[in-house]
Fold Response regulator.
Amino acid sequence: MPEIAVLDDETTLLNSLGMELSDQGYAVHLFGTAHDFSAYFKRNEPDAVLLDLRLPDADGLELLKKVKESTPKTQVIIITAHGNMESAISALKGGAFDYISKPFDLEEIGLVLKKALKQSRLVREVEHRRQRDYQSASLRDFIGQSNLVKELLNTVGKLSQVQNTTILLKGESGTGKDLLAKAIHNMSARASKQFIEINCASLPDNLLESELFGYEKGAFTDARQRKTGLVELADQGTLFLDEVAEMPLTLQAKLLRFLETRSFRRIGGGSQIKVDVMIISATNRDLDQALMHNRFRPDLYYRLNVVPLTVPPLRKRGKDILLLTDHYLTHFSKKFHKPLARLDKKASQAFLDYRWPGNIRELKNLVERLVILCSETITLADLPTSIQKITPRQTPDLNDSLARGGDLDETLSELERQLILEALNKSGGVKSEAARLLGISRFALARKMKRLFADNHDRS
């Protein structure tokens, strides 16, 4: 049952609101003074507060500020007989959900309150899901003993002493950039605040801006109420922009303005909203090549590239491959209540020889399948034919390509094309299933296919 606090010095109105909201199924607490409300508020976190702007012992705007600082998810609705445009703007800037002038219909209060509680539930649900996902991540989860990994983790460790910076994670898909971003947040001074993640390739261009910055009621046809964007939800915490290179150029300009000012406007809004966030972005593209082909703004690149970190591909990490394999064999054996599975000598060597174009994500998915389908000892015959037939350095290697004078961007694109074709083959041409196999959204797959295969057509 939602808990509602009502604070107003008019006894008749207070009692009327109490009876009406109780009849609507809310747990209602009535207060005539800020002093009484403050004593209650120290021990409770109401879902919403109906707050009179003028009180006998306090200023309503000051009380609004205290409520939002203490419990940001509590929705505050201002009610007053002394309203004007200036006080309304001040209340909304201070975090009020809405502003209603007296006299008003009780039905109107009920409708606004329902919208406020819906917004509160959505914020709490998003927070709950994200907390379960990121709060346990740490550098210990980034398994590896190779020199490349040690150097990376040593650099990341230095970031724990920094209050705020902008970090760019570079590396192929599936290398663990998202895990590293969560670990960086959890070891920072912002660990107790939100880690908000958005995949810039997972949404159509027209929805990405509204997800990032939100919108005001009436901003467009379906905007029936205000939407809080992910940038705003990340205030005081960390905003993780995954696959940032897939962001359309028009939105890149707006992101640049936000990075320069740390403020933004909701779509359809007139006022600037200022937030304090640490920005971590990630990409599996070579941004230097994207700059050359006018696919990414140079000024945005320089803003994002303050602290660049390169996450190495699995094929360059040597025996880390077997460390990760053992880790996932143990994990999935426990998960599926099976005897502890292990690779035999030939299977282990095949894992070392294979180039792992899908990196850790590919290895994890394969180990899960092997634990489910195979016996306690996994042999070479149990492995996919694509791995069985691999001899050392048989598959394309970026270093080889560069040594022959190859173009890095083209080599990466070719690897992406091969992975997509293989996924489409395995899924029988079903794009949604191919996207699932690749670990990306259907929107991201469609975007990549348009770019990669259009490039092929242009060259033919």
About this structure: Residues 133 and 182 are 9 Å apart (CA to CA). The two ends are 64 Å apart (CA to CA). Residues 106-134 form the longest helix (29 residues). DSSP finds 20 helices and 18 strands in the chain.
